[in-house]
Design a protein that fits this description.
InterPro entries: Beta-barrel_TonB, Beta-barrel_TonB_sf, Plug_dom, Plug_dom_sf, TonB-dep_rcpt-like, TonB_rcpt_CS, TonB_sidphr_rcpt. One of its GO terms (molecular function) is signaling receptor activity. It is a multi-pass membrane protein. This protein has 739 residues and is mostly beta strands. It folds into two domains: 109 residues, TonB-dependent receptor, plug domain (Ferric Hydroxamate Uptake Protein, Chain A, domain 1, Beta Complex), CATH 2.170.130; 537 residues, Maltoporin, Chain A (Beta Barrel). Helices cover 4% and strands 53% of the residues. The protein has a 22-stranded antiparallel barrel. A four-stranded mixed β-sheet has the order 1-6-7-5. Strand 32 and strand 33 form a beta hairpin. The longest helix has 14 residues. The radius of gyration is 25 Å and the shape is globular. The N terminus is likely disordered.
């Protein structure tokens, strides 16, 4: 019997999203009968003009102390917008000695970027994705370094520690207020795993003026999207925000191409006194992503006849379920003191059951399918972050100082059917996907329990109105305990420690420009820290350092913004093969990168705007040996796997007639390699996306969007035998309304 939406059983494939689409359609779409107390023009895809305000109405006169009272402008680079990703001192990019971008949620949704991955890679300078179903679709490259252990991801300033190389939340952009991207080492702010940069997704916050909005979309490949956003006061001193988004599709693959997801984000702000505020937020994410692990190469290329084939089995399954609960407290006892505390509980449950490896065998003309993998992740993290900020004087100069701590406890279990034996072969062009079959049972492989505490401090000394010095330091001390029921002797307890720091100077020749220089250090784990194996426990954290200089400028009365940065990063203590014992790893390797990045935004006329960025990077292994054919080969001088030397984005918007606006964007990613020897190349590619919006009324908009307009066949990531292809050309229509 089909499940009804009221039954409380475990969710089946697409069940949650289907229930939401049906019920929300009945509630939201006839929403013209629901009247807000105030109507505001639609500036965004369902987001009202007023995202954050400082004072509530209704004559209360109470100050609204939302924990992040900053609103990103919908256009430009937001060089004057304060943020907390580049500094804990609430500095703007102009005041920060680092490369930081603030990407507004309004811009993201106007450009039709439905996933966080699209929003980052199509907007941020130099960031590319290597996301795949195995890593949760959330892995990136930045400044020559790749993967979830080198490019950290945060949600509202909080980090879920990486478990077994996987991050699965956040993924949807409907509830995003902005995305803050910090490029370069950031361990001084967030700990290990951030030598390439940090991505912080900041959700929408409670508001004081009522907001109600909805979006519905239909597209090719059976795409269906529905979302709503609501916020406002629910009492004199209580305010809320609720966002719900669901997406479904049949998919572009001939076999097993469907996917679905559901994202719910809610927050309540209680203004206890004019100086004290509490915000309780809860976020839930459910994903059944595309069960696609790539298209095998035939003769070193993609055969047009196999482009839309999925070689996974019929009963394959991928399910990611995440919950994030945070209680934030902000107290300003005086104008010069601010105390913040965040208590959080994060949980992630993941399940994979797939055949994941496909190789074409020329001798038989068949696709050899191996690695029937079933894995469960169960991860739970409880923690608390506290900091206190002070403004005053030091040696007669204006000074800002912040200090605090972060503590957490993480439990992780990995259930699997290792060693993943069994194989089948199928015809590349005509085949039955078959069913999952493994020679090995699925049992608990290992479990870990980790504790971590950190102490951090940051200071800004303002020497003159034009010159300031900024410094920061952080000490991390994680402890990892691992148990292995299959091999009890493989259990261990390991303590780590790391000290990171940053020094920088910012000089403002004018109020609208800045020159900066900085030196920063960082640490990365040799693998996901909370899932280290016995063979990795005696290795230290890899260390890195960066020197960066840059220039930032607003001009043309704010209609133009420009940033330019140059940097050099070195990373030591990489795992390499012992030249005398190639099967044994030693920690003596090194890797480096240097490059330049430029970003510009120009409002050319009243109805034209162009934004673009380019990143040029030379990354290489400096000392990196791997076992090859019974010996050890040093790949010094070679380009790291999956790291492109050139990345660029260009967006042009044109309001060509009253109520009409067109946009076109081009994403370019340079050539990459799939092997250490740089013999297996993945080609460069350009993807063109476009849209046309028609503003039906002041409160509603109709949009037509085309993705991959030129139907480019390109690899998002891949190996020597398989490419994970990006989606082909597709079209969507969407209707957005505020009421």
């Amino acid at each position: 019997m089909p499940l009804s939406c009221s039954q409380r059983s475990l969710p089946s494939r697409s069940h949650l999203a289907t229930c939401f689409l049906l019920s929300a359609a009945a509630i939201v779409l006839p929403g013209q009968v629901l009247h807000a107390q105030e109507r505001v023009p639609v500036l965004d895809e369902g987001v009202a003009a007023l995202e954050e305000i400082a004072v509530v109405g209704r004559g209360s006169g109470v100050k609204l102390l939302a924990p992040t009272p900053y609103t990103a402008a919908p256009t430009g680079l937001n060089l004057t917008t304060p943020n907390r990703s580049g500094s804990r001192l609430d500095l703007s990019p102009l005041q920060t000695p680092a490369s930081i971008e603030v990407i507004p949620g309004q811009k993201i949704r106007e450009r039709g970027q439905e996933t966080v991955q699209e929003a980052i890679t199509q907007n941020a300078a130099g960031i590319t994705t290597i996301g795949a179903p195995g890593n949760g679709l959330g892995a990136y490259t930045s400044r020559g370094f790749a993967g979830v252990n080198s490019v950290m991801q945060l949600y509202d300033g909080t980090r879920l520690y990486v478990g077994a190389g996987t991050i699965t939340y956040p993924f949807d952009t409907w509830n995003v207020d902005r995305i803050e991207v910090l490029r370069g080492p950031a361990s001084v702010l967030y700990g290990d795993g951030a030598i390439g940069g940090v991505i912080n997704v900041v959700p929408k916050k409670p508001v004081a003026v009522p907001i109600n909005a909805a979006r519905a979309a239909l597209g090719s490949d059976g795409v269906k999207r529905l979302a709503f956003d609501s916020g406002g006061p629910i009492g004199e001193n209580v305010f809320y925000r609720l966002n719900v988004s669901a997406n479904q599709a049949n998919g572009w693959l001939r076999q097993n191409g469907d996917f679905s997801n559901l994202a719910v984000s809610g927050a309540v702000l209680y203004q206890a006194t004019p100086d004290l505020a509490f915000t309780l937020s809860h976020d839930y994410g459910y994903q059944e992503p595309l069960r696609y692990f790539g298209t095998p190469l035939l003769g070193g290329r993609i055969d047009p006849r196999t482009r839309f084939n999925n070689y996974n089995v019929n009963d394959s399954r991928i399910v990611f379920e995440d919950t994030w609960t945070q209680l934030k407290t902000e107290w300003t006892p005086t104008a010069n003191i601010t105390i913040r505390n965040t208590a959080y509980h994060l949980k992630s449950d993941r399940h994979w059951r797939n055949v994941e490896t496909y190789t074409f065998a020329p001798s038989t003309g068949l696709i050899r399918r191996t690695n029937p993998i079933e894995i469960f992740h169960n991860q739970e993290q409880i923690g608390n972050r506290f900091d206190a900020a002070f403004k005053g004087e030091l040696f007669g100069f204006r000074n800002e100082f912040v200090a605090g701590f972060d503590v957490n406890h993480i439990k992780f279990s990995h259930t699997n059917n290792s060693p993943y034996r069994s194989e089948t072969s199928v015809n590349p062009f005509s085949f039955s996907p078959g069913l999952f079959s493994s020679l090995d049972p699925t049992t608990l492989g290992y479990a870990t329990s980790s504790d971590q505490y950190s102490l951090f401090a940051e200071n800004r000394l303002v020497l003159t109105e034009q010159l300031s010095l900024i410094a920061g330091v952080r000490y991390d001390a994680p402890t990892v305990r691992r148990s292995d029921p299959r091999t009890p002797s493989a259990g261990f307890t390991k303590d780590f420690s790391a000290l990171s720091y940053r020094f920088g100077a910012v000089y403002n020749p004018t109020p609208d420009s800045s020159l900066y220089a900085s030196y920063a250090t960082a640490v990365d784990p040799v693998n996901s820290l909370i899932t280290l194996s016995l063979a990795q426990k005696d290795f230290e954290l890899s260390t890195g350092e960066q020197i960066e200089v840059g220039y930032k400028q607003l001009f043309w009365e704010g209609r133009g913004e420009l940033t330019l940065a140059g940097y050099r990063i070195t990373k030591d203590n990489l795992l390499t093969a012992d030249p005398l014992r190639p099967a044994v790893s030693i920690q003596v390797g090194s890797q480096s990168s240097h490059g330049v990045e430029a970003f510009a935004s120009l409002g050319l006329w009243e109805n034209w705007r162009v934004e673009g960025n380019i990143a040029l990077v030379h990354a290489q292994y400096d000392d990196f040996q791997q076992a090859v054919g019974g010996g050890a080969v040093n790949f010094a001088g070679n380009q790291p796997i999956s790291v492109p030397a050139r990345v660029a984005n260009l967006w042009l918007s044109w309001a060509f007639a009253p109520h009409w606006e067109a946009r076109v964007g081009v994403q370019f990613v340079g050539e990459t390699f799939s092997d250490f020897a740089n013999t297996v190349r993945r080609p460069s590619f350009e993807v063109v996306n476009g849209s046309v919006d028609y503003r039906v009324t002041d409160n509603s908009r109709f949009s037509v969007r085309v993705y991959n307009l030129l139907d480019e066949v390109y690899p998002v990531t891949g190996s020597a035998n398989t490419w994970l292809l990006g989606r082909p050309r597709s079209v969507e229509v969407a209707y957005n309304i505020a009421f």
